[in-house]
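Example record for the data management plan.
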Amino acid sequence: MASKPFRNRRWPRAIINFLVLYFDNCCIHGFRYVVQTMLVFLEKLFWFILLIASIYFCIIVSLSSIDRYNTKSTHVGLERNYHFWNTTVPSITLCPMQRLNESFFATYCRINGVKGAQRAILWDFLENLANSTYLNFQNIPESDQIDHILKDLHLRPEQYMKLIYNLTYDSTYEPIEKQRTRSIDGQVNIHVRQVLTEYGLCYLGNSRLGEEYSSRYLIFGKYPEPNKYESTRKLLQYQSGSYFEKDVGFTLLSFTSEAIDSFIHSPFDVMKVDTNFGYTTEGVVYDPVSEEIIAEENLETYVLLILSTDIYKFYFQNSFRETSVRMRKCRFHHESNLTHFPFYTRNVCQQECRINLAFKICKCIPHFYPNRIANPKPVCDYKRLRSCFPQHADFFLKLYEEGGHHEMPAPCYCEQNCLDAVITTRSALPMIGSKQLLGSIGSAITIKTWPQLRLKRQVIFSMTDLMVSIGSTAGLFLGFSVLGLVEILYFFTIRLIWQVLGYTL
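Corresponding structural encoding:
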């Protein structure tokens, strides 16, 4: 290595000499012919045009591969190997028509000095408020006496849902088994929880959603307490079955109210308030068919093989994402982009659209929505619920209205669930005589036939495929390789530094 001073050289000339040196020694095809002194001008121009055209088409094809990776890297395929599947039984959400607990209400009235006729008026008001939704806001009673009672109790609209929750007994924690709200399949218990819905406080069985979807978490931000009574028997978080099993299902029972309303839906989602069976005093037996939409293991993250005791178990490792939401056009439950909900499902996303629409039209939101956010939205008082919401009920529920005051649909873009199920109810029959037989009412789901096809989200163009595509394109047009990239880094880092310092290699 010889040291030569750079004092007499001009920087532009030095830069040109360095680029000529790189073009003359690089392994990318065509560059050396542009700077070779033995070629005439027309030959150099010819190679220069070929080189520019090759670089242009290399960039165009590579950008096409990148666009395919970002927008078309996944697809939904069809599976038919049903002999090997375990299909989750649909979920059921039951809403008792009598929400408040008489003992809790009596204690509340005694502490706050509510007596006589005021007590009956307050009970009727709170019971209707607890049972209110978009379909029946007009049934909430209104009177000067109610206004006077609410003023004496200092009960603001923001406190409506907390008061209803405190006056409602979560019967899943009832010590006596026959009086406990429970989901059973023979001698097996299936997890049941109290949830906050657009129909108030209800009970959910056989769900694959996390405990964030519970009334306690959505109202107070606290996870539900462990239910020791469920663990007295074998406990399943959810019920599933295979093609070779017949009559798989469960029963959600022990409701003592005069009537219930039930909703059957995907175990990967929440209920929709306008898809109910209707009021019934005997319960319902559902015979549904469930077609699942599953996701390939590497759709979100890589899968690691972990040794647990004597068997191998798979679990998802969140340290490396394989695909983004934009690429797969769906969301997993923990990928919430919502303001009011800590988890994501398509129906919950539509609930948030209703929240925003209600706030836009009525300048407040109903009391049954979670509102624990940095800037809480104002909650409607009962008079506003009665006056504003009934006239826009169809628009709020469907997010569009035919022949009404709202010509344009409400803006609401909600991605699909990456894991979901399409539930088709073949029959729904009342459980006649169940109240006399069991001493309570409930609903049951029985799967008699299993699906023979399902949809699966798959990655068809991964990051590895993208690298191979770009690398092969660069090799085709330019003869470029990984070593060529290393050569560029070497020339324009280490060798350039030595040149600047005055050394010639």
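Summary line stored alongside the record: The radius of gyration is 33 Å.
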